[in-house]
Amino acid sequence: MEPAALKAGSKQEDGFGVQPRRVADLGRVPSLQRSSSSLCRSRRSQYAFSSCEKQENLSSWIPENIKKKECMYFVESSKLSDAGKVVCECGYTREQHLEEAIRPQAFQGNEWDPKKHVQEMPTDAFGDIVFTGLSQKVGKYVRLSQDTPSSVTYQLMTQHWGLDVPNLLISVTGGAKDFNMKPRLKSVFRRGLVKVAQTTGAWIITGGSHTGVMKQVGEAVRDFSLSSSCSEGEVVTIGIATWGTVHNREGLVHPMGGFPAEYIMDEEGQGHLTCLDSNHSHFILVDDGTHGRYGVEIPLRSKLEKFISEQTKERGGVAIKIPIVCVVLEGGPGTLHTIYNAITHGTPCVVVEGSGRVADVIAQVAGLPISEITIALIQQKLAVFFQEMFETFTEGTIVEWTKKIQDIVRRRQLLTIFREGKDGQQDVDVAILQALLKASRSHDHFGHENWDHQLKLAVAWNRVDIARSEIFTDERQWKPSELHPMMTAALISNKPEFVKLFLENGLRLKEFVTWDTLLYLYKNLDPSCLFHCKLQKVLAEEPERVACAPALPALLYPRPRSSDRPRLLLPVPHIKLNVRAGNVAPARRGLHAGPLLCP
């Protein structure tokens, strides 16, 4: 989210009526209800008995780990609220302070200092959120201190909100005010963004407000929800916003937790504040103890995204660090700063040309040599794409923009320009995944390790189309044995298209099927799937070999190093893998197995 576009000082909204907050009102609060990965399942079990148990189990965790911020010293501001009321330097009225904050005390006579006069205490706003009159969709929300460690926030999201660890993190940034996009480009962006999130198991992170780029993302998710079945699951869309700028946030204050809290969207009455977007699934509302000041959430969001990208996800015997990509639409000075920071820290960025302002300025010069990206050229582009505010750009500002854009374009391996219908690009989802692969080719991975890493990403995302077009090319010839680890991962995670791809590219079952392989599959497949049952029958014939089997690695299955590894004492032609649409299963001695049926 771009704070510059919305910044409104510390003015208070007319009639903003948060109830006076008292420490005595804060008891031990119940837990957040763990959400299921499927929206349909979460609706069916929303208020079941088990949810009450989960609330009780978390009652000791919330007050110990999740805090809010409170101003503890009322200092009258020279500015009045929009309603003409006297407010503190923090932006809140006298009535909205704790009793001890308005008593004569040791602080008196000092200037207001947030480091001294704002304190943490247990949060009073968390739980489930429903948007009154809009939909039956139930989301999660929490108000937390700006100083909350990323590890605690991540623990809340994965353990207590029940979110699956993502295979990809998509951070969407850009204009915080509403902007116009051509209908076709808007459609392509919405379809591609949701497709990449839904197919790869990604988290989308935005500023969470019902305006600008965040509204565009929310409407993309809404359109997907209306056109998809429950079995396709929910797109995880996380809004990270400033608590003190959320309109009607008093409805979210529930010291014992809101299950659910009802939130009313009122765009006409929001004034300088903003409403939350009803199409996001989770909200992290960052509190610094002030009212009406934008941008408070930016440092916490940056740290959280970095923390998540450093986590490792393991599935099917393959471990990868969670990749992150920044997607940019439109935007102003704050967006340029965000892109610059992302590129500087090695995060690939996809800039959507045609969305306007900063995105179009960068897109217009991205293909030029650095020497041709001059101050005069950037000034010319700003005059075209920032017509309304061009007069406010000083000479120093234009010089600063030129230097930043030069630095961004200089790292071309991290910058991808999405041009709808051009350069062979068809959809945003492909552009995003191609950008990540392009970045990985020049970052931390070299030679064979680089190609191996890219293949891990493609398997984790379950995007065989990307593997075919970007990895299995004439540029790289794979040895059959190099595909063994990924073949094992594809079998465990039930990805038949990848099994078929590996067989097409030279993997030999005669070399792949060993006792070590079968034992590893047996120990890692879900016991309820048919493949596991078939393996159990095979292994039951050799109990002594199973009992003497060496310990197997917990993560990545090792690549075979020689041809003298123990083989199955069964005729190889009688052990086959049936690859069907949507299913992988073994067939043995003429018995053709049915679907894999892993849950």
UniProtKB/TrEMBL annotation:
According to its record, what are the GO cellular component terms? plasma membrane
Keywords, comma-separated and alphabetical: Ion channel, Ion transport, Membrane, Receptor, Transmembrane, Transmembrane helix, Transport
Start and end of every TRPM SLOG domain? 140-391
Q: How does it sit in the membrane?
A: Multi-pass membrane protein
* InterPro entries for this protein: TRPM, TRPM-like, TRPM_SLOG
Q: Which GO terms describe its molecular function?
A: ligand-gated calcium channel activity
The region called Disordered is annotated at: 1-22
* Chain ranges of the TRPM-like domain: 470-545
The answer to whether the entry has keyword Transmembrane helix is yes
Q: Which residues form a coiled coil?
A: none
The record's section on Pfam families has: LSDAT_euk, TRPM2
The superkingdom of the source organism is Eukaryota
Task: Name the Gene Ontology biological process terms.
Answer: release of sequestered calcium ion into cytosol
For this entry, the protein name equals Transient receptor potential cation channel subfamily M member 2
